[in-house]
Amino acid sequence: MKRFFRWLSILTLLILLGTTGTGMWLGGEVIRPARRSLQSHHREMLAHPEAFGMRLKPFIALDGTPVVVCEPAGMPGKRGRLVRAQLTARQAPLPRLGECDRVLVLVHGRRMRKEDMLFVAERFCAAGFRCIIPDLPGHGDHPLEVAGYGITESALPAKVAAEAAAKFGFSLESASLLGISMGGAIAMRAATLPDAPWKALVLLCTFDDLASVVETQAEKLAGPVFGPLLAFGAETRFALETGQMPSAANSRLLASKVSCPVLIAHGTADAFIPPECGQRLHEALTTAKSRRWVPVPGAGHATIFTTDFPLFATLSEWLLREMPRAR
């Protein structure tokens, strides 16, 4: 009997250590995700941006952040023409073809890179926006290795926008910010900084509290008994790498500091970050000049852009009406 309990104790200890260790590894995947390489469709858009109605201006920011500025040029491609037609049907204040007197910084999500946002920029360029897309730390070609989910990157959007404006000679008088998933947490925190230039904020399938996402996903993977151990390991790794617990990446607690108009869109079928997360964040935006909640029917976390719902027209129309034109 003693031998049985001895082996049972050893087995239990090994399970506990193994689960926590697995959590540490998963925490590494959260903050150091595998970097996505350039895909063939990225290369096509980079080689022939004019076929998509864009002009691309890449540069490296002073802190080493790779950035690309996308401007409307020539005739929009098929997707851009569709957005313009939808906006015309809605009688939105659509600029003339080729004009871009509004700026939109696009903040990508986890395991993405700036080139993944080129097809997003294509639609917004067709609607009259100049888009600025940076690689985030831990992603793409950014020299830093650790993603901080807004804890460490909140100043990056405004910095790269200011450098781009100075380099290419345009105004940030009418500049807004769009973030998807992890990028939404970064955009949310960026909007709370002193002297933030953003006139509007768009958040797509983002979370209200990173810690709750980690804990929920850990329980899905390991069940209610070992899930907390898995989450503990992941949170410990996050804290060791970033100097903060995941609970510091809590957009809901920052919501009362946001004063600009905010639109939150979330897929109704998002199983990774459930729509309730976006709804709680939307409800917490009590001091925003205006706020809008847009459910995207049938969209999952990775398919927010690819359903039949006219998301780009909806976002563009809202931004065109909320954002003043640069003088």
Number of strands: 8
CATH architecture of the largest domain: 3-Layer(aba) Sandwich
Low-confidence stretches: 11-17
Number of separate domains? 2
Spatial gap, N to C terminus: 84 Å
At the fold tier of CATH, the topology name of the largest domain is Rossmann fold
Count of runs of 4 or more consecutive helical residues: 10
What value does the Rg take, in angstroms? 21 Å
CATH class of the largest domain: Alpha Beta
Strand order of the largest sheet: 1-2-4-3-5-6-7-8
Query: What is the structural class?
Result: alpha/beta
What string, H for helix and E for strand, traces the elements in order?
HHEEHEHEHEHEHHEHEH
CATH superfamily of the largest domain: Alpha/Beta hydrolase fold, catalytic domain
Helix content: 40-55%
- Biggest sheet details: 8 strands, mixed
Quote the average pLDDT. 89
Shape: globular
Q: What proportion strand?
A: 15-25%
Structure, explained:
The chain has 327 residues and is an alpha/beta fold. It folds into two domains: 1-31 and 211-247, no CATH class; 40-209 and 249-322, 3-Layer(aba) Sandwich (Rossmann fold), CATH 3.40.50. The protein is built from ten helices and eight strands. It has helices at 2-31, 40-47, 78-89, 118-126, 156-168, 182-190, 210-242, 251-254, 275-284, 311-322; strands at residues 54-60, 66-72, 102-107, 129-134, 175-180, 198-204, 262-267, 291-296. It has an eight-stranded mixed sheet, sandwiched between helices. Strand 3, helix 4 and strand 4 form a beta-alpha-beta unit. Helix 3 (78-89) crosses helix 4. The protein is globular. The termini are far apart.
